[in-house]
Design goal:
Rossmann fold; four-stranded parallel β-sheet; 11 helices
Length: about 325
């Protein structure tokens, strides 16, 4: 029994810090954004009770690109004030703007939600900072396979819609590359579009009658004719109300009653949990650079019973109803 207790004590020490620690999270976006809410929930549930999580919102979904550097400078000032043990960088804009500013700091960095190839940035801005993290990739191949089976289509025509933001552009490039490699194997005809304006997004949705499905990717920085960001809930609800084609999603926050019908989706919470585990390992004594960069855990298939009924779809047994 004594040996068992010693082993247990050693394990607990290895996964959580044993002293008060400060961790700074720099969010690319803002706290009300569904993805951020989800991964912060995962982070907070994983970090030890003695860890204080400080946050800074770069707000790049709503602010113009011309203000991104100023936001990053503010985040750096907060870093200098707090002197945290670990910095967490949420999503691509935070990584691309903060890594150049932190490269020569004696700091461990854990990123999450990264769609781009971080190796390039890590090589370009190599310095004393130690970096690791969790990658995020839309589950294109698995999504298309499951949708094809769900719709009973051997040959399927799909339109994928994104906004024109940084993450969306990276994601569409990733999907386009996968599509070129898999289009014959998957038996699908895919059109991928990036839209800056709500008017062009609407036109595309209304001109989709000859498609078997629409996949809604990211839509949080669609703008109106006055160059103001349209509320994301408005974009999604309009799409739901006006589409004559079944709607699916790549991210969990887009699925639900009055939204998309379902999909094999990514969850921010799982990214936050994995990043939190990495932070705990750093606080327990490991260096971030000694921890492997990994892909986030595979997504889950979820659906809205209300939306499936609307489209006359029967959910597979392994899809989970979230209504």
């Amino acid at each position: 029994m004594k040996l068992y207790l010693q082993i247990l004590a050693f394990y607990l020490m290895s996964v959580a810090p044993t002293w008060a620690a400060d961790v700074l999270l720099v969010q690319s976006y803002h706290k009300e954004y569904g993805w951020d809410e989800s991964y912060i929930r995962g982070l907070e549930s994983t970090l030890g009770d003695d860890v204080t999580l400080h946050t800074f919102e770069m707000d790049t979904k709503r602010l113009p690109r011309s203000q991104f550097d100023a936001q990053a400078d503010k985040a750096l000032a907060l870093y200098q004030k707090i002197s945290p043990e670990v910095v967490v960088l949420g999503d691509d804009n935070a990584l691309s703007h903060m890594l150049p500013r932190l490269r020569n700091e004696d700091i461990d960095i854990v990123f999450l939600g990264i769609n781009s190839n971080p190796r390039r940035l890590m090589a370009k801005y190599a310095g004393t900072a130690r970096v690791t993290g969790v990658l995020e990739r839309p589950l294109f191949a698995r999504s298309m396979k499951e949708m094809s089976e769900l719709l009973g289509k051997d040959q399927m025509k799909v339109k994928i819609l994104f906004d024109a933001g940084t993450t969306a552009t990276i994601a569409t490039d990733h999907i386009a590359n996968q599509y070129e490699d898999l289009k014959q194997q998957l038996g699908i005809d895919v059109t991928i579009e990036n839209h800056r304006l709500f008017s062009s997004w609407k036109n595309s949705v209304e001109q989709s009658d000859d498609y078997d499905a629409i996949v809604v990717g990211l839509y949080q920085i669609i703008r109106n004719e006055s160059d103001k960001v349209v509320d994301a809930n408005k974009v999604l609800s309009w799409t739901n109300e006006n589409s004559e084609t079944p709607l699916f999603g790549f991210w969990d926050f887009s699925v639900g009653k009055g939204q998309t019908a379902g999909g094999v989706v990514l969850f921010g919470e799982s990214q936050g949990i994995q990043a939190g585990k990495y932070v705990n390992r750093v606080l327990a004594g490991e260096e971030a650079s000694e921890i492997s960069v990994i892909h986030g855990k595979k997504g889950r298939a979820i659906y809205s019973a209300t939306e499936f009924e609307r489209w006359g779809l029967t959910p597979p047994t392994h899809w989970r109803n979230i209504d």
